[in-house]
Design brief:
mainly alpha; ABC transporter involved in vitamin B12 uptake, BtuC; disordered C terminus
């Protein structure tokens, strides 16, 4: 497919996804118990006080809707960074252990230090960064010869395999910590670990909005360098690109997007994993705008389904995304060798 038709296809898909996000946002605000009439919801959004409805819309459903959109956007971008950088569709933060690293940092902060609020965000961020650094170290990204084309591919694959192993160890650590705290606290942590928007507030939405406001412009600058990096480390070095600095910058942005989202919503399983490959299928190449829109749509639709599809029971969004992601992961494993991604 030539560049012009591909661009038109990507633009049309992006417009359709944005429309889907708006429709899902309206459904998330209006549907539920009780159902909010459209005219009353619009009145509240225009600043009027409608008894009962104002609280439901402005303090409950709308913050959850905004957090869902922001969290999905961040996870879609984070997953695409790792998948494109490592040339592997399995290299999303929730598969390679970065999400579990952020979760472990937050769980340690909650269970050992009783942290809440900003301290929880910093703990998740440090946990994610430490996990990414450990995986890079063990995978041998800094070994001599890692910049060669074949060696770079080997490092990329080792990164995924080492990440899965580190993630398993972190999962065991979380399980151990849960046995060492009171039952009520363990229940709260377990609910958070599922991934939920039930505790969404305007303050948490502001944290995610600020993170995206800072990190997206940085990512926009790095994306051009990422395209050069995809040519291979030796070629990129020959073109004057600082390969190590670019890799570190991209990984830091990807980890920050993932970790801050985990701190706000808990680990929303497979959102980062789903968005990138789906965007690539639509666009024919990695597409950060499509991945961001797909991530927002996935989280928002998962929350709408979880809140309304099961009579009398509200399921966290993380349960729905996990149910979607697991079969998609199996399909990806059987569809194509991982080494072909990005080539």
């Amino acid at each position: 497919m030539t560049t012009a038709p591909r661009s038109r296809r990507t633009g049309a898909a992006l417009a359709a996804l944005i429309a889907l996000v708006f429709a899902a946002a309206a459904a998330r605000v209006l549907l539920g118990t009780p159902v909010v009439p459209i005219d009353k919801a619009l009145a509240v959004l225009m600043g009027q006080q409608v008894p009962g409805i104002s609280f439901i819309v402005m303090d409950s459903r709308l913050p959850a809707t905004v957090v869902a959109i922001l969290a999905g956007t961040a996870l879609g971008l984070s997953g695409t960074i790792f998948q494109t950088l490592l040339r592997n569709p399995l290299a999303s933060p929730d598969v390679i252990g970065v999400t579990l690293g952020a979760s472990t940092g937050a769980v340690v902060a909650m269970t050992v230090f009783g942290a809440t609020g900003p301290a929880l965000f910093w703990a998740a961020l440090l946990g994610g960064l430490a996990t990414a650094a450990l995986i890079l170290l063990v995978a041998g990204a800094g070994r001599p010869g890692a910049g060669a084309a074949g060696a770079a591919g080997a490092v990329d694959n080792r990164f995924v395999l080492v990440g899965i192993g580190v993630g398993a160890a972190l999962s065991s650590l979380i399980s151990y910590l849960l046995t060492r705290i009171p039952t009520q606290s363990a229940g709260d942590v377990m609910h958070w670990l599922i991934g939920s928007l039930s505790s969404a507030t305007w303050e948490r939405a502001a944290v995610l909005a600020l993170a995206l406001g800072v990190l997206v412009p940085v990512l926009a600058v790095l994306v051009a360098q990422l395209r050069i990096l995809q040519l291979g480390d030796d070629m990129a070095t020959g073109l004057g690109l600082s390969v190590a600095r670019t890799r570190v910058g991209l990984i830091a942005v990807g980890v920050a997007l993932c970790a801050l989202t985990v701190a706000v919503t808990g680990p929303l399983s497979f959102v980062a994993f789903l968005a990138g490959p789906l965007a690539r299928m639509i666009a024919g190449r990695p597409s950060f705008p499509l991945a961001a829109a797909l991530g927002a749509a996935i989280v928002l639709l998962a929350d709408v389904v979880g809140q309304n599809a099961f009579s009398g029971t509200a399921l966290p969004a993380g349960v729905i995304t996990g149910a979607l992601g697991a079969p998609f992961l199996l399909w990806m494993l059987t569809r194509t060798p991982t080494s072909r991604q990005g080539r």
